[in-house]
Write a structure and sequence with these properties.
about 325 residues, mainly beta, Neuraminidase, 5-stranded antiparallel beta sheet, 28 strands
């Protein structure tokens, strides 16, 4: 525990101050368990932490995003083309509809938005499956029908497959993945690969990686020098780490962790969404729930949700890890 990474973890734990809501007795149904493979996980997830079910009844919940100004979590339900909002005080309410497909077809399988992020100006940016684009929300949330601006629709004159997940760096560059999960059988696939891209502030789309079979979740290291990508391919279920230069260009890459062998009937799910804690530790959805992975690629343990788990995210103070798992919205307390 002498390296900088572990010192950073302990510093984060020591500086964290408890919130009032953490002192409130548990009021939600609990599920699952914490699998602790390395004692280092105890610094991030306390011994008494339980997985709370905050809401349920969704078709496939995705894209959790914390809104600090509203003290709320928003998340997508991709098949129903909706975004939901959850708060401690008011529970669940509809936030946006439609979220990803703006047309009239009712037979689309995954029309809604998937990954969500806020740009530097605080605008909601969405990976819109149905429209096959990166979109920006324009209309207020109390509008009868949400309105969007298309920020990026394709690469070199060809339409994207279905943008899936995204992350901004401090320069305002947007990194995103483009697997085909949101495409329907009648959709024309115009690109011959599943890409990872960077959208610059002036609107230019740059291809960074075209060699992954199913790029999905995406995140940056705290120093923004490493781009993490989850590959949701059952034959090559992996998390990758790509080194970036100062311009945001990929200069090298490696497999951080291969979890293909972890798949089983009792551990549902593939590498999907992921987030990076301020300590540098990855919280990455995968077989069984959310895997806790060191920056060096060591599996420290897992938050076992008993469901296929799509994505996760922190509140601003990293007091909780929120998880979208199939029909459920869940959370687990952090230090």
């Amino acid at each position: 525990m002498k390296n900088t990474y572990w010192l950073a973890i302990f510093a984060v734990a020591a500086c964290s101050s408890p919130k009032t809501q953490e002192e409130t007795p548990a009021q939600f149904q609990t599920i699952g368990s914490i699998d602790r493979l390395d004692s280092a996980i105890n610094v991030l997830i306390p011994a008494d932490a339980q997985i709370e079910v905050l809401a349920s009844g969704f078709e496939w919940a995705e894209g959790p995003l914390w809104l600090e100004d509203q003290q709320a979590l928003i998340f997508t339900d991709v098949p129903t083309n909706k975004i939901w909002k959850w708060t401690e005080q008011d529970s669940l309410s509809l936030y946006l509809e439609p979220s990803g497909y703006l047309g009239d077809r009712t037979d689309k399988r995954e029309p809604g938005a998937n990954g969500l992020a806020l740009d530097p100006a605080g605008n909601l940016i969405l990976c819109q499956h149905g429209e096959r684009q990166i979109g920006k929300m324009l209309s207020p949330t109390n509008s009868p029908k949400a309105e969007y601006e298309a920020l990026a629709t394709g690469y070199e004159g060809k339409r994207f497959n279905s943008p899936n997940d995204l992350v901004f760096n401090s320069k305002g560059q947007l990194f995103f993945t483009d697997p085909p999960y949101g495409m329907d059988p009648w959709d024309e696939k115009e690109l011959g690969f599943q890409g990872v891209y960077r959208l610059d502030a002036e609107g230019k789309v740059n291809l960074l990686v075209d060699s992954l079979s199913r790029p999905n979740g995406i995140a940056l290291s705290p120093d923004e020098k490493i781009l993490y990508i989850a590959q949701s391919d059952p034959e090559k279920a992996r998390y990758y780490a790509f080194d970036l230069d100062e311009a945001g260009q990929v200069i090298s890459g490696k497999v951080l962790l291969d979890v293909t062998a972890l798949q089983s009937e009792s551990k549902k799910g593939l590498p999907d969404g992921l987030k990076v804690h301020s300590s540098g530790v990855l919280f990455a959805t995968g077989p069984g729930g959310v895997l806790v992975i060191s920056p060096e690629g060591a599996l420290l343990g897992s938050v076992l949700t008993e469901n296929g788990t799509a994505n996760c995210g922190f509140d601003t103070g990293e007091n909780y890890l929120y998880m979208t798992a199939d029909a459920y919205l869940m959370r687990v307390k952090l230090r």
